[in-house]
Structures are given as structure tokens and as C-alpha cells.
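#struct-pred

JT: dropping the chains for the assembly here, can someone run the whole complex?
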Amino acid sequence: CLSKPPLSAFTSSGSPAVLARLPGSRVPPPANNTAPQPPLAMPTVSVGRDRLFAALGRVYTQDEFEALCFDFGIELDDVTTEKAIIRKEKHLEEDVEADGDDEVIYKIEVAANRYDLLCLEGLARSLRIFTGSEATPIFKIASIPRGSMLQMHVRPQTSQIRPYVVCAVLRGVTFAEVRYNSFIDLQDKLHQNICRKRTLVAIGTHDLDTLQGPFSYEALPPQEINFIPLKQEQTFRADALMDFYRSDMKLKKFLHIIENSPVYPVIYDSNRTVLSLPPIINGAHSAITLKTRNVFIECTATDLTKANIVLNTMVAMFSEYCENKFEVEPVEVVSHDGSTAIYPDLSCYKMEVSLSDIVGPIGISLDETQVISLLNKMQLQADLCSSNREPCISVSVPPTRSDVLHARDLAEDVAIAYGYNNVPKSKPKSMTIGGRQPLNRFSDKIRAEVARAGYMEVLTFVLTSHEENFDMLNRTDDGNKAVIIANPRTSEFEVVRSSLMSCLLKTLKHNIDHPRPIKIFEVGDVVSLDTSRDVGASNNRRLAALYCNSNSGFEEIMGLVDRIVKIVRAPHINFGQTYYVPSSEPEFFTKRQCKIVMSDGKQVGYLGIVHAEVLRKFGIPDPCTFVEIDIEALL
Amino acid sequence: SDFTLVAPDQTQSPVFPISPPRTSSSSSSPPPPPPPPRMAAKQPLSDVEDGLLAHLNANAEIPDSRSFASSLGVPHKDVEDVIKRLTAFRIVESADITKETWVLTDEAKGYAARGSPEVQLVAAIPPEGASKGALKERLGDVFDIGMKAAAKNKWIGFEKGNKDLVLRKVEDTRDELQEQLRRLENGEVIADKVIDDLKRRKLVTKEKSIWYSLKKGPEFVAKRKTLATDVTREHLKSGDWKDLEFKDYNYGAQGQPIAIGYSQPLLEVREAIQNIFLEMGFSEMPTNMYVESSFWNFDALFQPQQHPARDSHDTFFLKAPATTTQLPDDYLEKVKQVHQSGGHGSKGYGYDWKRDEAEKNLLRTHTTAVSTRMLYKLAQEVKQLSDAYFISL
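RK: done, full complex below.
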């Protein structure tokens, strides 16, 4: 007769507190649906399906494409249309006509450190190389005599705010609208991810034909900077522009990067035309259009390594559309101390790795030539290197694969190219003795005992609101108890619970229509501040049980406590003849509550009839008795 | 629909007709209260049943259940109960006999018991007479009605000049009304003229009564066997169980709901998964540390300090306790070097690693933070590294 287990409503909608989860494992859904979507650790790239298939040179069924994605280690996350996305954003019903296109869009989730997969060009190219229909491109730096190379002069004041700049030029680019959009989208994606919302790197792209080199990268007081920003028609002074953008949904979140600095970074050409006010906005003068043929790219940064990765990614993706495919024109950056450097640096990172360092960790046996061909599928140019006694492979990591730092990264790519599902299963070669954590084993025994006593187990969120943890329990926060979250996403998850009481009361409230008596329990951790620990807080394993009926059930809960005491009573756990000591806590009725103490006087728990005010605050109409016991103390 | 397992016990329960199918919850309700005490001597219903069946067996029919009841000396209600029970089992066939009869009102019942108002009044007047006030006090409501009827019968008189003193004018009064009422109460036939008179005085009302004529039914038996519903302690003690015949169970019925406890299903699943690892020789790692430093959660895992997962959008940082300052300095230095400039075969991330960022406390974003601490501990404790398998759930 378990077809309708009681309290099945515990898993139904309307109850937010159902599953226990490790805190912070995923951000709880924001209460407000209109809140902007946070950038995820795994970025999602939206590409038009038909354009993608055109770039791949064949049409896939969705299943075939999903299989390809799986093999390559990316994931087809969603299939939608622009229309559906707009409809969703505006919360329109299915039958309401929305703007936008009916073109099918694939949303593809890629690894956070694969910046080369953030646009259709790179994604398609990687898949073509993976499937063997194309060889890894070799990026070339156009050979230009030193004297005629474009220059970017860096002024010393920039070191106060944003010290680095790297640049490159793409010549003879053919932009069609889709290519142009992809170019802009890639900048957005890079800004969001590796550029850390423009704090580390900001990209500016310009129509070179509207400008006159050499350029200068300066940092000036905002009052001295005047220009017409992109999408505007009038001249703004930089400080006024910042005020102007305070109401701009897209740009206002970048203002903090420079607004408190006495000098703002700015890039000029030789005619004092402002190229950009990084990391906020470009000038209108040099804006890229569909007709632009020669593109000047500048990346200003606080992190030079990342500036190079960003610049390399931009040019590696879009040099595909240059007159001389995959050829990039360099720019000389002249530092204020006179030193010079030429960008972009498209050189490959050379690694020499022994064969066993690659195949060993995977657990497969391949020879060098097999491994080399697998590495080539992953855009990693590999060759035999004969110098060592041990079989060895030399690998050239191209500028697009900035994620490869170590031999293990090569092993990962070989495993992907080999196919995870093709790796043979093997048994562990050594014998080990398994075992449980004593506290967890003990917790499970207690859980089973309480379930046997007729209580239903629930799992609740570890996070709770400050109000539920304190005020609603008639308790006060003295500042020494609860772990408090600095950046809560919703008011429901502000603190880590310091007691299980609010969790069980909330669960009861959401299942209040269940037939009486309602008997629920939870064994779980609470966290409290603890200066004796390195992190300043410690977990404590608790058992909590709640009884709700038309009467309080105090003696029912006492019976449960008696049972627990009986089973844990052992030579080293000493409970006296009576272990109930009257208490006076605000969450319970006066004279209807007590502490549970061991014979040495140590308090291990408390119980009582929940105070009428507390019940009212939680919206519970019937009397309840609650008990909470520190079971670590009984271990 | 769910039925009770057995119909109500007929040998014990006087409740009839047979109850409609009852829900299991109502079947657990307490037994009905015992029937109210009756005027007639109590006779068990089984005796009534036996007598009725014996009579039918001998005489084939009972034309009037009312007279049969009086012949047994039991209230008709008892006979009626038995008839309904036997009819349900088709042991007898009954036909309804209905008749409208005159019954006494509450007021009339009082007169039938204590006498008519006029007789009560006359009886209350002493030889020397009595004042109206004294009589009214003694007789209450009866006084006014009694005065009127007694005056009409000329049973009372008044002293000249003193209208207040009531005198008794007859020695003996025959209480015709009480007699009529008693006859009616006993079911005797009364002349219509009398009835009209009683009706006018609001002493009788019309009531429909029902009784039965009976004959043998298709399942007639002279003596009905009583079927047991359950085995009781008494049966075992007395040895009655040997002769018990049981009523059929309804196996389509549901059992009684029982009070039961439950384990959370997700934790059952966790246990199943955990057992796989334990059987393979994995040891559990301690996971009861929700607050963790960025150092053990990210930096020690070679996760760069600008990684988007370390953004405030993806990680809960803490206001209290905000930082962890106790970090192993030598290990921290190694972690810093690998992030900044590489080592151990890695080229590193090439950025300026900051201790402040590593000290930021957070709610552990993954149990790999537990693994980090475990690896560090192993490296500190174990001299000779041997295989070890760990699991955290």
C-alpha cells in the first residue's frame, strides 16, 4: 500500500526546501526572473544551425550533431530560434507573435578556457580539423619593414590605471553582415569570460582607413578628454560621459573600472582623434562598418598574458576573412622607457613530452604515430622527436590553444580524440581497504533508528534567510553564531543555518494539509562561527525531529529522545538517571521546554513546545514539539 | 471503492439494517453505544430470533408482527430489528403493514399517567375549600384547564360573596378522559366522536405506524448458524474455536493504514552509490566542512584567480567569517609559483597571484576542495606513497 506514501507533498512544487545541497554548488535560482543571467563558468555559444552546417561542409541530423559534440567534448545545450528567445525574454505566451527570426539556433556549451570556440568561425574550424576535413591553419605575421610598421606609443601615466596595450591589423577583410555580427559577438564573449567583464582586458576594433598612425596610448585627467563616443552624435567630455552612461544598462557595469581614477586611459591617433576610452567605449569616428576593409585591433589590459590571448584569439578567428588568409599585420608597441615589442605574438608554444606521459594517464597503449595523428585532430602540431632514448613527441601549441599548459592537457586532448568510450575498462591493480567516516556511519544509524520510530526523513536547504534563522524563532543574532553570505542571490539564502529548527518548521508549513500527526526529522549539518578552526567556522551534525498534531506531543518527542539515549548509552556516553533539565528559551513555551544534558553537565540537545509566536510567524496552526540533538557529542 | 474486510458482526451488534459499505476509516471508529434501556424485560435479540423462526417453522406465517411481539413480551422494535436482519439474508419474507394511528401528545401522556386536569383539580381541593392562588401554585398549568372543565361538570362551586374560595361539590369523580387516553395508549379502538373531542383539546395527533406480516423466505432455516468474524482470545481460552465457522473475508479490501517512518529516497540512492565505492576499497573523506577558503577550494586546484567560477555570480563568498589567514606558508608559496610562472612541467598562467584572493572564505563550491586537503594531508603524513582510494559523497 505504498502507492500513496504520506507526505509525498514533500517533493511537490511549492516547497522550496526539498533537497539538501552543498552550499554554493550552484547558484539557487534568483527569485526575480528579470535579473540578468549571470555569466556561467561554462560559456554557451549561439550559432545559426544552417550557417554552422555550411561551414562544416555537410548537413547533420540533430542526433548526429549531438554525437559529434559529445565526441569533441562540447555539448549541444539547446535548440531554439531567435523568435523563441525573444518570446522567453519578454515572457510572452506561445501563441503571441514575437519579433525575430525563425532561423534555428544551436546553443553550444564549451569549456571556459577554450576561447577559440567562442564564435562560429572557431567552432566550425575546430570541428573540421577534428573530423579530418581540414588541416590546422598556420598563422603568419605579414613581413613589413620595421620602419613602415604601425606604432603604438605607450605613455607612462597609463601604468597608474591600465598599463598594457597590444595591437594588430587585419588587412583586406571582407565583412558580410553575419561575419560582422560574429566579430562583435566574439568581442562580447571574450569581454564576459577571459576579460572578466573588461577589468583584465578590453578590446577596441577600428576602421584603420579613418585613422592616421602612429597611435598613442595615454592616461589623462577626464576633463582633458573630449570625443564623440560610438552611437552618439555630440562630443562628450570623459567625466560627463561617465555620468551619461550611468543609466546605460550595458555600459554602466564597466564604469567602476576607471571612474575613481584621476586619469582615464585613452587612445589617440596622430591627428588626436580618439580611438577609444578603454574599457568603456570606442570613438564614433573609427567605428567599423560592413564596408570596413582594414581593421585595427587594440587590447588594453591589466594582465599582459591575457591581453595576448585575447588579441591572438581575435586575429586567429578573423584573419580567415583577410585577403591573405590567416595573415596578420603586426604593430610595434613602444613603451615609455623606449623598449619595443611587436604584436601579435603568434608563435607556437613548443613542448616535448614522452609518449608514456600521454598514454599512461589515459590507460591506453598507442604508438607515437597514432598519438601524433590524434594530437593533430586537436589542432596540436606534433612530430616525432628522436633525441631521447624514450619515445618522445614534440608538440607545437598554436596561439589558439592557450589552454594547453602542461603534458596533462595534451593527454586530455588525446583522450578526447581517442574517444573516452574507447578507453578500456580495467580493474584497480592494488588492494585497498575501504571505510566510512565514523560520524557518517553513526549518523546513518541514528537516521535508521528515528525512521523506525515512525518519523519521515526530510532533506532541507543548508542555506536559509537571516530572519528564519533568528527573528522567526524568537532568537537574536549576537553576531557570533551564524555564517553570513556576502553576496546572497535571494533573501531566502542569506545565512548558513545554525539550527535545523527553521528548516523543519518551513517543511511543515509547506505540507500543513497532511493528515495528523505529522512526524518529520532530519539529520544534517549546521554551521557556526568557530575561531578555533583555520577557516573560522565549523560544522556540527545534528538530529532534529518535529511532531505536529492537535496536541503538542511533548511526550512523543520525549519518547524519541529516551530511545536515542537508550541506544547510544554506552560506557563512554554517560547519561544520568534524569537528563532533562528545565530551560527557558524564547522559541518555546515557558515551562514546556528542557535541555538534554549528559551526566558531566554537557548540554547535547534541547526540546520544547514551539512558542505560539514562532508558529504564527511560520504560518503553522497546530501545536508542535521540536527537538534538536548534537549527535557528534554522542559519537 | 474499498470495503471493510467483514460485515459488522451480527451476533454482537444490534445495529440494523445492515450498514452500507463502510470505509476502512469508519470501520475503525468505536462501536456504537449500547441501546437505551427498555421498559419491557430485556430479552436478547438472539432469543427473539429463535422464537420467531420457531414460530414460523411451526405456523408458516406470522400475520401481525405487533401481536407477535406482545405474545413474546418484547417491544415491537426488537422484533422489527430481527425481521430486518432475517429479511436481508432472505430467511424470511416480510410484507409491510402500515396504519395511521392516533397517538397521545406529551400533554395527554401526562394526563394518562396522573389523571385529567379536572380530576386533579377536584382531588386537590380540601373539604373546607381552597383559594385559587393556593390551587394554582400547587397545580401549575393544569389549574386553568381543570377549573374550566370542572366548572362545566359542576364539580366545583364558589362561596357567595367570596369568588376566590373554590369549593368541592362532588365526593367521587370518575376520570373519563384518563380512561380514554389509557385505552388509546394501549392501541384500543376509540369512537370517532371521542377522537374528535381529544383532537380539539390537542391531546392526540395522527401517526403512521408500520408492522409486518411474515412468511418463510427461500433461505429459511429453523435455527440460524452464527458466523464468526475474528478469532478472539475468548475463543482460544474457551475452546470455542473448534466449532467456529467464519464469515467470508473481502480480500479486495485494503488493510488498515499503518503509521510508518521513511528514509529520504535521495539518501537511499546515496547509500547505494556509496556502497559501490566502499566495496571497491574506497575510503570516505570527511565532507563536514562547508566553509572553505578560496585557497583550498580554487588556488590549490590550479584554478586561476580570474577564473569565471570565482566570480561572485558563481560562488557564495562570506561576510562572516570573511577570510582564512591560517594557510601553510611553504605550500602556499609553491602554489603561487605554479600559478605565476609555472613549474612541474606547466608553463603557468603568467599573472600576478594575490594572497588576499586566496584568503577569501566561501561556501565550498565542490567537494574537490575536500580532495585538495586530503592530498595535502597525505603528502604531509605519508613517507612512502602507496595507492589510496578516496570518495566523498
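JT: nice. Chain B is about 40% helix and 15% strand. The longest strand of chain B covers residues 92-104.
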